[in-house]
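Working notes for the structural subgroup meeting. M.R. asked for a predicted model of this chain before we commit to crystallization trials. I am recording the input and output together here so anyone reviewing the notebook later can reproduce the run.

Input as submitted:
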Amino acid sequence: MYSDFDIKIIDSAFDPDLESKKPKKIYYNNVGEKTVYKVWIFLEGKSLPYIKDVTYILHPTFADPIKTISRSSKNPRCKLEIWTWGLFQLRVKIRNKKGEVFEKTHNLTYNRDFPISKDDFEPFRS
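Returned structure, recorded in token form:
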């Protein structure tokens, strides 16, 4: 039931799946007059093994603001990668394996990861 539902929505300027031995970098790119940052949104919690998929509803200024990510062995945390220039609130619909849907909101806070040193930033090159 909902009271037993233990899932947290996390966002970070660091890829949560990178090996901890590698130096963490914040990726950015300049688009016109704005700087955009690569951000990962993902789930954590005790109920994670029971999740089927998650739908992230991003800010309406995104070209394709609704993203559904199925939980898999390759993406066990339903990780979504986005490029964004600002902080916003997103809606999240989490569906468990029984088909129950839980809705939450999450305010992005990836800026808390920003370091003091400019050496921790790396321009993105594709």
